[in-house]
Amino acid sequence: MTAVADGAVRARQSLAARLAARTGGGVLRVFLILVGLFWLMPTVGLLISSLRDPADVAESGWWEVFAKPAQLTWSGYGNLLGNAKIMDSLWTTALITVPATVLVVVIGALAGYAFAWMDFPGRDTWFMVVVGLLVVPVQVALIPVAKLFGAVGLFETTAGVVLFHTAFGLPFAVFLLRNFFAEIPRELLEAARLDGASELRLFTRVVMPLGGPAIASLGIFQFLWVWNDMLIALIFADSGNPPITVALQQEVRQFGNNIDVLAPGAFVSMIIPLVVFFAFQRQFVSGVMAGAVK
Predict the structure, then answer these.
(1) Mean pLDDT in the chain?
(2) Which of 104, 120, 141, 246 could pair with 169 as two cysteines, CB 3.0-4.6 Å apart?
(3) 252 in helix, strand or coil?
(4) CA atoms within 13 A of residue 157's CA, in its CB half-sphere
């Protein structure tokens, strides 16, 4: 009888545990969905505002469109396409973001490989210097770099902004990729060397393919940082042809906003990095975790 009673108790406990696990999982999913919807609410509100007439935006909130769907119109995006300043600013942002991302990825990968697998004097010391540069705030370098760029003719130029972003993106790039490359099995590299592979061939044919997740995550991180930057663009970019963040800020006026251009422009500026992030979020998370934990 005791054994039967113990078996019944264990069965009830097992059933209770399964029910608790399923209920807890369902509650967690609902909670995460609500958090996701709450996080996306500003994006949805901006999208709806960009599809409404400026008069409707001034009179009521964006949620009114669910009761009055006739308010939706594409005229704001037509005004955006006809605004040469905003369209030029998007092109300027691309001219800054793409080179700054490519340079950081390429130089960071080369330096990360050197710190991980090449022996040279002071390797560990120089790597500690690179790690120390991670804690240097951007604001500390604004005035000295502005004076330097002014002396060499790079102030208020696209090249100057690219160089600034590249310089401040490299410490994190080297740190991330060095940690990732250091986890590649030594036997694999030694086998490639025995087959006659040079360091350059070893880097391009073995290390780069294996470091794909970390390289992808670095590229995404750098792209998002440069695309959304406003401080450096406001100081170092050409005031006559600024990036999109500065151009949108200039549309905010003292006694009113140019909402028919500001809302569509802000949504376009925001949706591009969001698409990039969601398209490669798996590589971003796996690469950052691998570089930080390993």
Answers:
(1) 81
(2) 104
(3) strand
(4) 12
User: What is the reported pTM?
Assistant: 0.78
> What's the token pair of residue 174?
């080297």
> How far are the Cα atoms of 83, 142, 225, 268, 276 from residue 80, in angstroms, in the given order?
5, 32, 24, 10, 22
Instruction: Write out 173-240 in H/E/C secondary structure.
Output: HHHHHHHHHCCCCHHHHHHHHHCCCCHHHHHHHHHHHHCHHHHHHHHHHHHHHHHCCCHHHHHHCCCC
DSSP 8-state symbol, 66: G
CA distance 140 to 161: 16
Sole residue written with tokens 């005004």: 79
Q: What counts of helices (H) and strands (E) characterise the chain?
A: 15, 2
Task: Give the Cα separation of 243 and 164 in Å (integer).
Answer: 15
Output Rg (C-alpha) for the chain, integer angstroms.
26
Q: What tens digit of pLDDT does each residue of 131-156 get?
A: 888 888 888 889 999 999 999 988 98
119: left (phi over 0), alpha (psi -120 to 50) or beta: beta
